[in-house]
């Protein structure tokens, strides 16, 4: 019997791709800011005079300065922290997945520095200065990936007696990164988000600047004089993690039954409602209104005005429920599951109050003092006691199964029209509006597919193929070829797009292509029935059939809609169209 020795050594290209594909350019830049904050935090905790909160985090970040420079040619993040020693750099600072657990820190997975360089670069330079030493590391991404035989890189160190700090500079960014870095609107939005993500650090003295502009902490405040009692809840878990919840009414929101103030309006506040989630004071989710933070499948008017913050604290960051890029929550994390129950309880209290407050409006009463508030809460307690003796309702089918699209579709990177269609699809029940549902599915696919082809630079290829086919038909029929104006105004039909997606192998990527190809085939198979049901006045279709179509085409719809957050189709790529 011959022994076999299967090769399990990874390829650099595979490792780099797996480390970078799910992270955005913005998240990578934030990773470098996180590293600077963590290094300062760790160094200061060693000082016996440093002041900590009851949750174990520093209360003073005065003295820490982080300067971020972003343009189409480079990304630079520099700080005046303690720097990294040559031993730290040599033993793991750039190692894939090296543990990066710091006491009460905001890092964990050990992928931030190298992932950022591989995501954006180009060429990465790390210049780190400690007391007595300066280390320089330069990494050419293309050369490193091509060299499969060597996993170490060269670096130098020399004596140094100047100020400490670390500078990470990435030049010659790749085309994908340039599309983000060269857009002023993208960089401006990054700065706005950073003012919220790092609000608690900025509020405690951190000086963070982006392209020369010093950021100011941005908070959403709970109203101090609200008729709705503030909610504060906390818990300390057996794993050592602490949960703190604060919730209430938005500082600028007013219930409809409250006394009117001249010029006041709740319009424009909706985007500020919802839950914000922090891990060791670093924001992971901001103003979230989805099921994952305890809401119903669709945002209702009764939720308007609610703002809440959930704080997770732990010396062991493995007990904090954030993903590797710190852009989302790990819903299955034990710590988060416990917090979610507390969050849902807070939402139930708000909804009860909001509904009864609305009844006050209908009855002509006014919400203006504590007596009224106590009356409302007492009325709610009576309603809850009465429900205990009512016959339980027959369980209903979960409403989320009725909608054209589920609520967890990420539309933050969609162009405006597609974003509007997604919202309509998330609020359109199939069982009540079956024909509207079919039309929405068709429109969503057609628009999202065109945007996807623009993203991967294939729309021009498709248009050229259509023009060539039409010219061929025209010549055969003795007609002139398409005019320049006809070519400019050409818009691919849905059948053209479907045909191109079906015949172009690998268009959705290596790992998920088969799954999505099948979903496209299902859509093509249903297209005739969908068109007939929409356009033929005598063709009827049942709700179960519409639900079957939705279920089969949902994978491709989600993939086309949820594009990487570095891709913006609002105004760029006009030449690709």
TrEMBL record:
Keyword terms, alphabetized: Kinase, Transferase
Record-linked SUPFAM superfamilies: ATPase domain of HSP90 chaperone/DNA topoisomerase II/histidine kinase (SSF55874)
UniProt KW Kinase keyword: yes
Keyword flag Transferase: yes
Bias (Basic and acidic residues): 382-400
UniProt region (Disordered), positions on chain: 382-402
GO molecular function per UniProt: kinase activity
Name assigned to this protein: Histidine kinase/DNA gyrase B/HSP90-like ATPase
């Amino acid at each position: 019997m011959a022994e076999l020795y299967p090769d399990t050594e990874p390829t650099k290209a595979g490792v780099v791709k797996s480390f970078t594909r799910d992270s955005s350019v913005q998240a990578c830049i934030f990773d470098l800011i996180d590293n600077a904050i963590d290094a300062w935090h760790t160094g200061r905790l060693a000082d016996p005079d440093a002041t900590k909160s009851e949750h174990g985090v520093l209360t003073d970040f005065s003295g820490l300065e982080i300067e971020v420079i972003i343009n189409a040619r480079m990304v630079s993040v520099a700080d005046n922290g303690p720097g990294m020693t040559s031993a730290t750099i040599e033993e793991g600072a750039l190692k894939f997945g090296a543990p990066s657990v710091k006491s009460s820190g905001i890092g964990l997975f050990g992928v931030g520095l190298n992932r950022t360089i591989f995501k954006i670069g180009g060429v990465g330079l790390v210049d780190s200065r400690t007391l007595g030493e300066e280390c320089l590391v330069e990494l050419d991404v293309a050369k490193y990936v091509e060299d499969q035989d060597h996993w170490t890189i060269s670096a130098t160190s020399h004596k140094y007696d100047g100020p400490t700090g670390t500078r990470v500079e990435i030049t010659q960014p790749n085309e994908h990164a340039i599309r983000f870095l060269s857009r002023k609107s993208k960089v401006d939005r990054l700065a706005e988000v950073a003012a919220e993500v790092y609000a608690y650090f900025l509020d405690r003295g951190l000086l963070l600047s982006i392209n020369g502009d010093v950021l100011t902490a941005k908070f959403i405040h709970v109203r101090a004089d609200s008729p709705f009692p503030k909610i504060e809840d906390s818990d300390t878990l057996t794993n050592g993690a602490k949960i703190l919840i604060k919730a209430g009414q938005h500082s600028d929101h007013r219930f409809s039954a409250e006394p009117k103030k001249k010029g006041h309006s709740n319009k424009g506040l909706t985007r500020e409602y919802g839950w914000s989630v922090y891990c060791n004071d670093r924001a992971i989710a901001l103003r979230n209104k989805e099921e994952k933070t305890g809401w119903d499948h669709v945002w209702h008017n009764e939720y308007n005005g609610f703002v809440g913050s959930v704080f997770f604290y732990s010396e062991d960051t493995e007990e904090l429920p954030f993903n590797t890029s710190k852009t989302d929550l790990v819903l299955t994390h034990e710590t988060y599951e416990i917090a979610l129950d507390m969050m849902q309880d807070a939402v139930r209290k708000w909804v009860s109050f909001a509904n009864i407050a609305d009844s006050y409006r209908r009855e002509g009463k006014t919400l203006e003092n504590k007596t009224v508030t106590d009356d409302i809460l007492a009325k709610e307690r009576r309603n809850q006691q009465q429900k205990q003796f009512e016959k339980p309702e027959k369980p209903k089918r979960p409403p989320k199964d009725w909608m054209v699209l589920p609520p967890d579709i990420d539309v933050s990177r969609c162009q405006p029209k597609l974003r509007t269609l997604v919202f309509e699809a998330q609020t359109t029940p199939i069982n009540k509006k079956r024909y509207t549902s079919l039309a929405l599915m068709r429109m969503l696919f057609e628009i999202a597919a065109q945007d996807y082809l623009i993203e991967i630079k294939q729309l021009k290829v498709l248009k050229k193929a259509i023009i060539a086919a039409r010219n061929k038909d025209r010549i055969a029929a003795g007609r002139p070829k398409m005019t320049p104006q006809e070519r400019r105004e050409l818009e691919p039909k849905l059948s053209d797009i479907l045909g191109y997606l079906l015949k172009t192998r690998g268009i959705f990527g290596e790992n998920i292509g088969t799954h999505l190809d099948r979903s496209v085939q299902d859509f093509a198979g249903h297209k005739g029935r969908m068109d007939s049901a929409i356009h033929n006045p005598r063709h009827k279709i049942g709700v179960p059939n519409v639900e079957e179509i939705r279920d089969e085409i949902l994978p491709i719809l989600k993939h086309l809609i949820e594009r990487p957050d570095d891709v913006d189709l609002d105004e760029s790529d006009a030449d690709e169209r």
